[in-house]
């Protein structure tokens, strides 16, 4: 099994080099010591989730919530190209967290929650902020589980107009739609830049939304012969694109 990943604050790994002893404490230190029960000599990876990573071994365990890491190597991972963003309409129940989890594990680079017209779920006020926090926490934990150095940021909830602005600046923009005439598997993809995919809600993308997105440069594409749930379509599409762009090669 590959070494477990623990998250440090952004910038905390600046100036860290082979031979440095780094102290991991707080919630992550507690998880490493009391939950994962890491011991001296075991391998560990530290990351800020922004592409920086420090690899090393546990040098000392201090109490229940702190350990020292003897760093053996450091790595700065560039953002992969092309960059894949999924605009995810709000699903019902906890399916939003499922979508974020599987998309993160698959390799999506950014996630945008979208308040589509046909969404049953609504993010408003304190409840909306709590739901957004759950999505972000899910992306963080899934990033750790999948041993990523880049965790996908989860944006603030966007309106249809804001999503259209995002699509207009993409190198390739697509709306997953069961009535799309072109398979996503045959679309011409860019080697660099932003690929932005829109995944609609359970009730589908409305004709009005589809027209707005088409005006912004996004065409409708079908994913396959079967109709997937909104919580799984983004993951399936991302896997297809990661394979076709060579990022999984």
Automatic annotation (TrEMBL):
Cellular location(s): Cytoplasm
Coiled-coil segments on the chain, per record: none
Recorded catalytic activity of this chain's protein: uridine(1498) in 16S rRNA + S-adenosyl-L-methionine = N(3)-methyluridine(1498) in 16S rRNA + S-adenosyl-L-homocysteine + H(+)
InterPro entries, per database record: Alpha/beta_knot_MTases, PUA-like_sf, RsmE, RsmE_MTase_dom, RsmE_PUA-like, tRNA_m1G_MTases_N
One cellular component (GO) term of this entry: cytoplasm
Source organism phylogeny: Bacteria, Bacillati, Actinomycetota, Actinomycetes, Kitasatosporales
Highest taxon of the lineage: Bacteria
Entry's Gene Ontology BP terms: rRNA base methylation
Class in the EC hierarchy, top level: transferase
Natural source organism: Streptomyces olivoverticillatus
GO molecular function: rRNA (uridine-N3-)-methyltransferase activity
Stretches assigned to the Ribosomal RNA small subunit methyltransferase E PUA-like domain: 24-69
Primary location group: cytoplasm
Pfam family membership, one: PUA_4
CDD domains the record matches: RsmE-like
Function: Specifically methylates the N3 position of the uracil ring of uridine 1498 (m3U1498) in 16S rRNA. Acts on the fully assembled 30S ribosomal subunit.
All copies of domain Ribosomal RNA small subunit methyltransferase E methyltransferase, residue ranges: 80-241
Protein name from the UniProt record: Ribosomal RNA small subunit methyltransferase E
EC number from the UniProt entry: 2.1.1.193
Swiss-Prot/TrEMBL keywords: Cytoplasm, Methyltransferase, rRNA processing, S-adenosyl-L-methionine, Transferase
Family assignment from sequence similarity: Belongs to the RNA methyltransferase RsmE family.
């Amino acid at each position: 099994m590959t070494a477990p990943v623990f998250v440090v604050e952004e910038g905390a790994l600046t100036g860290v080099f082979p031979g440095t002893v780094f102290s991991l404490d707080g919630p992550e230190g507690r998880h490493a010591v009391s939950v994962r029960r890491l011991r001296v000599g075991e391998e560990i990876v530290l990351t800020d989730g922004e592409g920086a990573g420090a690899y090393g071994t546990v040098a000392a365990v201090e109490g229940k919530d702190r350990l020292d890491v003897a760093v053996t190597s450091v790595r700065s991972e560039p953002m992969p190209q092309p960059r894949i963003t999924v605009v995810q309409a709000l699903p019902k129940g906890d399916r939003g967290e499922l979508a974020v989890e599987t998309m993160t594990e698959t390799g999506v680079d950014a996630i945008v929650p979208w308040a589509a017209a046909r969404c049953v779920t609504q993010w408003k006020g304190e409840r909306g902020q709590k739901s957004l926090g759950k999505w972000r926490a899910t992306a963080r934990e899934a990033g750790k589980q999948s041993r990523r150095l880049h965790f996908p940021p989860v944006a603030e909830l966007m309106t249809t107009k804001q999503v259209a602005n995002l699509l207009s600046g993409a190198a390739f923009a697509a709306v997953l739609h069961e009535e799309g005439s072109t398979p996503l598997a045959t679309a011409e993809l860019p080697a660099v830049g932003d690929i932005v995919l829109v995944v609609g809600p359970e009730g589908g993308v409305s004709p009005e939304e589809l027209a707005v997105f088409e005006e912004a440069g996004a065409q409708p594409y079908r994913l396959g012969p079967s109709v997937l749930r909104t919580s799984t379509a983004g993951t399936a599409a991302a896997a297809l694109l990661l394979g076709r762009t060579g990022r999984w090669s």
